[in-house]
Amino acid sequence: MTSAAAPTLWRDADFLRYWSSRAVTMIGSSVTAVALPVLIYQETGSPALTSSLMATSTLSMAFFGLVGGVLGDRFDRRRIMIAADLVSAGAIASLVVAHVLGVLTIPHVYAAAFASASAAVLFDGSSAGALPTLVGRHRLPDANARIWGTQGVLDVAMPAAAGLALVIWSPATLLVVDVLSFLGSVLLVRAIRSAMNGTREQAVRVTPGVLWGDLVEGLTYLRRHPTLWPLAMVAVFGAGSAAALLGLIVPWADRVLGVGTSGWRFGLLFGSWAAGAFFASFLMPRLSRRLGAIRLGQLLFPAMTLLLVVLSRMDRYGLALAVYLVYATLQVLVISATVTYRMQVIPERLLSRVSTASRTISWGGGATLGVLVSGQVASHWGVARALVVVAVANGCAALLMWVPALRRAAPTARFVEPD
Fold this sequence. Notes:
This protein is an all-alpha fold. It has one domain (10-194, 206-407): Growth Hormone, Chain: A (Up-down Bundle). It contains 16 helices and no strands.
């Protein structure tokens, strides 16, 4: 889609359908992000097991991230996204049914969380390539900002509402919201009229060898790219610290800040990350164009490291909430700018593969290690010391932002139009 012919985003019917599908999914995912760790923590009382729940998401990326990218570039992205939503709906629905029947177990929670997260990885593999195809490269900063901004609004309201709802209902009961959100996303994705794949060469017979070749091509492109590869190494530590902090939220709220695992203060703490996404959505388009993702990372990673050190020393709810909100804003600002940069520089036929390869390295590798290590540190030496580990990991990302390849990089992305 050329920028000259493109309507404004809020008048682009297919973008609105895409945006709406993401929005309804965000509603359900926000509730589940609160309900599942609370369910684990209430049943076990273990920070390590609660933090390890985050590993179901990171491990799913490690196992299926590269596969999702290959499938998204080779097959119909719309069909993959619909199938993934249906699998996620079924996995979460199984928890609701088991709860109603009185047979819900902790292993079942982990298994369903892993199945839903794995389907989400396949969804994202196709979604990463679909958005640039739908809106065009030049509108990506605005499109991503609106999606992240919507996520910020919903993820502030929904965790707070979930925290209040947990006073009345069990965590398992709230999962019904997530099931309905996935089904709503299916209907909206089906309604998108525009193609979600770019023009392809003449079709070839798809064999395991062809798919393997696609995978190698995507990894080779990433490994040889002068800026995407060092950014992927930065993201290993950046994602590791962010995921570790998210995995510690429930025990941090209960054991350090003293707000328990339900109520409006607990919900606001969960929602602060999303509030940060909301604020970042206003800043990202302008800062991304003016400074670029690389310069933003060089400026903001040191600031985030300092904020994490401060958080590790805090036990007062109000101050901790404010510092956490600032940290979340900076973190989401860097993430969204980097994702936009990646979408702008990767050729369309490689978009899904290279995007998911980057996320597999960072989220599947770095984040998995981060949540497992921080959970063990929290269980043996306390949550405060685990937060110090989180700060150290973020500091490593800050140092890596100054490797020669990134110091010499152009400040903003150079667009690669669909080939």
